[in-house]
């Protein structure tokens, strides 16, 4: 038994960063995920796109068990997170998560947002946590904001602090749940730039997003979801530029056409319609 | 509203003009009547009252002077001390009860609800009697006075504070817990490091109100047999009242309470304003 477990674990360690098998999730009578199979390799950047209500965020939240799957299996970095006996707190340490609504801790300064989890979860001492915290803040270009409380930061700055907070835990992979959807359009660029540089450094990233240009330029693979299933997936040039499924085509037409027609870019009606 | 220049508004099927008063006229008459009533009452009181007697009873300068400095150094200090003891114990117990009330284990919830309902429903006086006289008689133990006061004030205060703190915890957005958990914090760690600090900030104004209520309730200590050095404001005032046959000590004791409660009340309003701004 233990031998089997060991070999399967080693297999996973040399395999995917995220492995999802036949994942179902229902809220009451509503089935949000209807059998998802997919995986993310180490170093890979995968963008999940799709209309609102298609289950993208739920899928992401099942990966670090913020939502408990109804059935199916999820492995992250060799640990089966759906195993009832797994130490989920330990697994989550390795998974950085960035939320649409930032979720910075408002009673702590930017630097304290980074140091408190390091000290309480990883047991780092004060000096080391502060050193790493400052390094990660510098990483997102916010060195001068370390003593500032979140309420005094712009949305874009808050989201960059949130990314830095996740990075301070030295995660093996990062989950992004519509990280730019709550931002004013002029603040989106800074956040995307940070994410792009993370991708360039080889960070494993699973990104739920409506930013098609980001997906096209940064993603190694794009997954299109609709109605709780993966409709199609592949390299961005294939899924975004020449989709094979009608549902993908109609979604992309709604999202991309206003911009292509020069009617004021994303946010006209297609993108807004796709946002939750 | 209506200026003389404004166009005459067509009054539909108007009542006879002579009888109707404009809104402004009516306001003036109503206000005039109110001032007149006030003036009459003040005049009657001023003429009928025996001012010499009232002054002797309430504002006897000699009696007043005799109360100092003990009314400050002993009584006021003890009132503050008793209140803080009760508040500290009540806050700790209230936090525990709030967490029990939110527990996923049903018996904890039942216990917390039963406690809260019981202690919110009985008079604080009864709790003081039970702890001050009942417990020593029934168990043949004598509690330290300070412990008695701390328990009596705290047990009642905790019931109110528990409900307040519970509301505060529920007011912290769910995303805060999710962020903490996603960083690898356990449920308990997220509660202690992230949720409770924010919850306490949210409930700071109502908790300060609770402190004001406890300050006043601390007067119930006068029931217990206290030594002179343990007197608080109410007991001190009552003692001096008996000695001097003058209400002056009571008035001064009352003013001493205001010295505590008015600034706290002001603090509550400022905290409320700053919380409102922060949102």
Automatic annotation (TrEMBL), chain B:
Gene Ontology molecular function terms on file: transmembrane transporter activity
Ranges in coiled-coil conformation: none
Annotated membrane topology: Multi-pass membrane protein
Main location: membrane
Chain positions covered by the region annotation Disordered: 1-26
Subcellular location: Cell membrane
PROSITE patterns registered for this protein in UniProt: ABC_TM1
Protein name: Glutamine ABC transporter permease
Species for this entry: Streptomyces finlayi
């Amino acid at each position: 038994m233990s031998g089997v477990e060991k070999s399967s674990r080693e297999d996973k360690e040399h395999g995917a960063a995220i492995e999802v098998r036949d994942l179902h999730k229902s809220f009451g009578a509503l089935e949000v995920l209807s059998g998802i199979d997919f995986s993310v390799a180490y170093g890979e950047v995968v963008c999940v796109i799709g209309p609102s209500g298609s289950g993208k965020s739920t899928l992401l939240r099942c990966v670090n068990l913020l939502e408990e799957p109804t059935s199916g299996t999820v492995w992250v970095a060799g640990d089966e997170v759906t195993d009832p006996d797994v130490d989920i707190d330990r697994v989550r340490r390795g998974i950085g998560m960035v939320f649409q609504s930032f979720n910075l801790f408002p009673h702590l300064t930017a630097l304290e947002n980074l140091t408190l989890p390091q000290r309480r979860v990883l047991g780092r001492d004060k000096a080391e946590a502060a050193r790493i915290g400052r390094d990660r803040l510098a990483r997102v270009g916010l060195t001068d904001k370390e003593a500032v409380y979140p309420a005094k930061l712009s949305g874009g700055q808050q989201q960059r602090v949130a990314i830095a907070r996740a990075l301070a835990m030295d995660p093996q992979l990062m989950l992004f749940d519509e990280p730019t959807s709550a931002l004013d359009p002029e603040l989106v660029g800074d956040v995307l730039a940070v994410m792009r540089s993370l991708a360039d450094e080889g960070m494993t990233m699973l990104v739920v997003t409506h930013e098609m240009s980001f997906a096209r330029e940064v993603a190694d693979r794009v997954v299109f979801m609709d109605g709780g299933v993966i409709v199609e997936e592949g390299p961005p040039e294939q899924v975004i530029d020449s989709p094979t499924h009608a549902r993908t085509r109609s979604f992309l037409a709604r999202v991309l056409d206003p911009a292509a027609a020069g009617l004021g870019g994303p946010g006209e009606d297609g993108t807004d319609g796709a946002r939750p | 509203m209506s200026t003389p220049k404004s166009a005459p508004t067509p009054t539909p099927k108007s009542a006879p003009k002579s009888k109707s008063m404009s809104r402004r006229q009516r306001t003036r008459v109503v206000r005039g009547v109110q001032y007149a009533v006030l003036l009459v009452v003040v005049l009657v009181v001023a003429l009928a009252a025996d001012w010499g007697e009232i002054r002797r009873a309430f504002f006897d300068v000699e009696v007043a002077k005799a109360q100092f400095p003990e009314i400050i150094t002993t009584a006021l200090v003890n009132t503050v001390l008793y209140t803080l003891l009760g508040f500290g114990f009540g806050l700790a117990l209230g936090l525990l009860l709030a967490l029990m009330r939110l527990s996923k284990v049903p018996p904890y919830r039942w216990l917390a609800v039963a406690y809260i309902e019981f202690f919110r429903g009985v008079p604080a006086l009864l709790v003081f009697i039970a702890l001050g006289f009942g417990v020593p008689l029934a168990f043949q133990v004598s509690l330290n006075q300070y412990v008695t006061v701390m328990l009596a004030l705290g047990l009642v205060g905790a019931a109110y504070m528990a409900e307040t703190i519970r509301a505060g915890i529920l007011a912290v957005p769910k995303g805060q817990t999710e962020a903490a958990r996603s960083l690898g914090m356990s449920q308990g760690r997220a509660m202690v490091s992230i949720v409770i600090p924010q919850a306490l900030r949210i409930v700071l104004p109502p908790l300060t109100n609770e402190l004001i209520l406890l300050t006043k309730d601390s007067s119930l200590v006068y029931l217990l047999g206290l030594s002179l050095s343990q007197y608080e404001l109410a007991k001190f005032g009552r003692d001096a009242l008996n000695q001097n046959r003058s209400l002056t000590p009571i008035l001064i004791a009352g003013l001493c309470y205001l010295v505590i409660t008015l600034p706290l009340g002001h603090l509550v309003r400022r905290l409320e304003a700053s919380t409102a701004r922060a949102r």
